[in-house]
Amino acid sequence: MNKPHIVILGAGYGGIMTAVKLQKKLRQHEAKITLVHKYDYHFQTSCLHENAAGTLHQDRSKIKIKDIINRSKINFIIDEVVSIKREEKTIKLKNKELHYDLLVIGLGYEPHTEGIPGLREHAYSITDINSARFVREHMEYNFACYANDIKKDQSRLNIVIGGGGILGVEFAGELINQIPVMCREYDIEKIQVNLYMLEENTSLLPGFDENLVHYAVSSLQSRGVEIIHQAKLKECQEDKVIYEVEGKEQTIPSHTFIWTGGVQANPVFEKAGLSLKNKKIEVDSSMLATKDDSIFVVGDCAYSTDENGEEILPTAKKAIEEATVVAKNISSLLHNKELTSCQPVKQGMLATLGRDDGVARIQNRRVFGWKAAFVKRISDNHYLYQLGGWNLLLKKGNFHLL
Ligand SMILES: Cc1cc2nc3c(=O)[nH]c(=O)nc-3n(C[C@H](O)[C@H](O)[C@H](O)COP(=O)(O)OP(=O)(O)OC[C@H]3O[C@@H](n4cnc5c(N)ncnc54)[C@H](O)[C@@H]3O)c2cc1C
Questions:
Q1: Global pTM?
Q2: CATH 3.40.50.720 fits 5-111+264-347, yes or no
Q3: What is the distance in A from the centroid of ligand 1 to the CA of 188?
Q4: Is the pLDDT of residue 79 over 80?
Q5: Which helix (DSSP H) or strand (DSSP E) does residue 221 occupy?
Q6: Ligand 1 pocket mutation pick from 107, 110, 281 by most atoms within 8 angstroms of CB
Q7: Among residues of the chain, what percentage have pLDDT more than 90?
Q8: Ligand 1 atom closest to Cα of residue 14
């Protein structure tokens, strides 16, 4: 190949880490690298629930892309990917077209809202900086309405979280800490505010050990979260949420329903004719799409399995480790070396329950309380260091001890 063009789509955990690793591995004359992303910043998805609850300002989660890439090696385009035309090896962006020789797809996930009436129209979701800020501002607006209205409308103070997976639980943990702050701000008695969590299964946090789940449930309930198990969501309207428990229909009057119940990979690549499984792109062990050896895939878009053939949970850690292998393999391809296999990610399980509480399983050890929350901070800080060294860590790191 004569100075191949490598195009990276998406600057989430997988895409940005691929770019940062490639800029270290390749010299300027070896390849042209282009990174395409919707915004001029990368954001830490693992902090979005804090941004949405209002416990962490969204600017803390934003990292300017120009501060971490070497612009003499990487051409950065702010644009939206519309489609991938594999036969012509081109990418259609909103504002231009790009030709590629090697492509890295790292477009992440989208909220899965199909099948439940009113979910797409009326539910809020936490997927990026703007949606997280929207959730926070929407809750504040409703508190302000309640404080100002002569005829008090309780639905303004009923907040419902749909889904008791990691995101739902982490958001509930942050929000229940923030509610007293919002109450003070808007002169509302704390007792007036209700925070509900609807979970379809009998248990929260799928994949976590029973005693970790038990701890999480007790922590949330003791702080006032009303968890409703086996609640099947039926419909979401502007001012109410309808669900069913044991065959009986129930309604919670609420203007604020936050859906955390499911994510799916980005639909942009669905029409590209790649081999898909669970709406994700099937990859081989080197992270190449099984149907196309000019396309690598990282993170939530990639359907990767462990040694037992089970799908690996989509996490930031998975995306980062895959990005490291992809950067190495792109360099190997250019230097006619053998490709490396991606080892199945050894995942720990971690969910925070607010700033100083959480549950985790790390190398078969169960961790509870502030220690789990502390591990999350270390892991976020380690990521910042990997991405932008000491400069970025000191600028954006979280150094709260407790
Ligand atoms: C609120 C929340 C909290 C989470 N907490 C944790 C956690 O604590 N720990 C953990 O390990 N995992 C966590 N996850 C999961 C983790 O964030 C994902 O697995 C990870 O972000 C996947 O990385 P990625 O690179 O595949 O995609 P992403 O990080 O989602 O990045 C994809 C990027 O592509 C951009 N993009 C999308 N479409 C287009 C387009 N058409 N054109 C241009 N750009 C586009 C998006 O803006 C996005 O920035 C969390 C997820 C959420 C939603």
A1: 0.91
A2: no
A3: 35
A4: yes
A5: helix 210-222
A6: 107
A7: 82
A8: 25
pLDDT in tens, 102-115: 999 999 987 777 78
Asked which of 52-66, 122-136, 183-197, 271-285 is least confident by mean pLDDT, the reply is: 271-285
Question: What would the DSSP string read from start to end of 180-220?
Answer: HHHHHHHT--GGG-EEEEE-SSSSSSTTS-HHHHHHHHHHH
CATH 3.50.50.100 intervals, the chain: 5-111+264-347
Give span(s): CATH 3.50.50.60, the chain. 119-261
Between 66 and 344, the more confident residue is 66
**Closest atom, ligand 1, to C-alpha of 126:** 1
Nearest-10 Cα torsion for 158, 163, 263, 54: 40
Domain 119-261 has CATH 3.50.50.60: yes
User: What is the pLDDT averaged over residues 290-301?
Assistant: 93
Please spell the DSSP secondary structure of 348-371, one letter per residue: -EEEESSTT-EEEEETTEEEETHH
pLDDT above 70 covers what percent of the chain?
A: 97
Q: What is the per-residue pLDDT for 273? A: 87
Cβ atoms of residues 232 and 242 within 8 Å: no
**Closest residue (by CA) to atom 4 of ligand 1?**
46
Residue 255 DSSP class: S
Report how far ligand 1's centroid is from the alpha carbon of 272 (Å): 21
Q: In a 3-state reduction of DSSP, which class is residue 299?
A: helix
> In the prediction, which pLDDT does 178 show?
97
For the chain, how many residues are written? 402
pLDDT above 60 (res 1): no
**322-357: b (≥16 Cβ within 10 Å) or e:** bbbbbbbbbbebbeeeebbebebbebbbbbbbbbbb
SS3 88: coil
